[in-house]
Specification:
The protein is α+β, with helices and mostly antiparallel strands. It is built from two helices and four strands. Strand 2 and strand 3 form a beta hairpin. The chain starts with a strand and ends with a strand.
Length: 75
């Protein structure tokens, strides 16, 4: 299991959180996504063998938010 924390610009409320979490939960290989609009970060647990970071970032971008490359943290 891999973890990724992304800084997502534009999340301002719980509805934004739900939008991002729902989109990510529909991606095969993502086990859990927890977004926090107050910090602007999304923590994602995923199967790194079936999914790469670009696919995760693209999913968030498709929901209408911007992912800051400065805020990418891998573990």
């Amino acid at each position: 299991m891999s973890e990724l924390s992304l800084h997502v610009k534009g999340m301002k409320c719980e509805e934004c959180v739900q939008t991002v979490e729902t989109a990510l939960s529909q991606v095969a290989g993502i086990e859990r996504a927890l977004a926090d609009y107050k910090s602007g970060f999304v923590k994602i647990e995923y199967n790194g063998y079936n999914l790469n970071e670009n696919e995760i970032v693209n999913t968030i971008v498709q929901t209408g938010y911007i992912v800051s490359t400065e805020g990418i943290n891998y573990s």
